[in-house]
Amino acid sequence: MEAQDFRKYAHQLVDWMADYMENVEDYPVLPKVNPGDILKEIPTSPPEQKEEFDSIFADFKSTILPGMTHWESPNFMAYFPGNKSQPSVLAEMLTATLGAQCMQWLTSPSAAELEEQMMNWLRQMLGLPNTFTGVIQDTASTATLCAILTAREHKSDYKINDNGFSSSDRFVIYSSREIHSSIDKAVKIAGIGANNLRKIPVDERFALIPEQLEKAIQKDLENGLKPLCVVSAIGTTSSTAIDPIDAIADLCIKYDIWHHVDAAYAGTALIVPEMRWMSKGVEKADSFVFNPHKWMFTNFDCTAYFVKDPLVLVKTFTITPDYLKTSVDERVKNYRDWGIPLGRRFRALKLWFVIREMGVQGIREKIRNHIAYGQWLKREIENHPDFELMAPVPLNTLCFRYRPKSMKEDAIEAVNQRIIEEINKTGKLFFMQTTLNGTFCLRLAMGNTNLAKKHVENAWKLIQETADKMSH
Length: 472
Hints:
The longest helix is centred in the C-terminal third of the chain and has 35 residues, at 348-382. This protein has a seven-stranded mixed beta sheet, with helices on both faces. Strands 8-9-11-10 form a four-stranded antiparallel beta sheet. The protein has helices at 3-23, 53-64, 86-98, 109-126, 140-155, 159-163, 181-189, 210-222, 245-255, 292-295, 310-317, 348-382, 409-426, 453-470, and strands at 133-137, 171-176, 197-200, 226-233, 258-262, 287-290, 303-307, 387-389, 397-402, 432-436, 439-445. Helices cover 43% and strands 12% of the residues. The chain is α/β, with parallel strands linked by helices. It starts with a helix and ends with a helix. The protein has a domain at 100-345: 3-Layer(aba) Sandwich (Aspartate Aminotransferase, domain 2), CATH 3.40.640.
């Protein structure tokens, strides 16, 4: 492609992007396609000759767009959001244009030093202790795996990296039974073993019970096992339950256990000072993760991972062949040593753009509004005779179900499943289910960048109307 053509088509795409972001809620939030519909529209073999860009872009609009789920829509309430904003998108365009591979300081000094400062900014914004320092990872799943690997090496005096596991390395990981599935995957990848992950009981708020955690730790110690790491949650996936970080931290200190705090979604709420009750005791933790790409209006992927002792992290992951050695290594942070991959994207740029364009106060205002919408809907559900809340609502995710008094219990789950199916088919709203204490629930997660109260009101109205039809 020639430079003049690139300029022409880039302007064309930006115009389309601006229109899309402005009008996205007019699209059906969930596409009306069946498995294989898109596949059969794409040629089975690549073209031998070049094709005109006009034709490629036309096919994008006619073939690809109809099969997209519109995460950008404020009517998307199925999962925690994969958010973005205009400044974030613009920064991603620059990142793609620069094409930098930011594996270490010398490969892009600006990228390394901007990342360092953005992690400092985020630490201040969330009210985290100055003892924490951080690195940008791709996802919280990767960051949590890093935490478990670091805990493993620290506990074994870094011998497992060199020699593999010995018969004495009988490690155990602990979390609540409401923890994210990435922890199950991480213990497998780290070689700990799925059978060595203890799922601790939760209380009526679905938060981990510290007394039960201590009992499990003591039992494992009595059986000759080695408690390695506790993963606590600020905002579990099903219901955004808040584990008692402070009490868990004290137990981890008492028994010399690594404490990793998973705040992937709800951590963004710590930008609002009045929500920092959720992180009480976090200064005693060893590591902490949250995702700006979920609720801080920054494009996927962008995960902020903080550690108390970066030397332990670096010692776990550093490998320096001759071709990566530079003359400045002793004076800089080479972030390739702070995680799993060697190759790294320039993710700090979009954080810089978002924080500066919105300002901390602008981000706080959106978060406060989203929480207020959640609390409004909580009151609506509590006051409705035919609906019931199934979990506390500390933030803006609601778990509830339709349960009219005249309906038998064995019919309730099927009716609620039909409510989800019927509404999602309309394209007006996309939401999902979860299971709490074995009970099927409707789950509404509200955190889109452009979410307004009217979208929550419309969703609630649609749910009520559909439920009413189900009972007649």
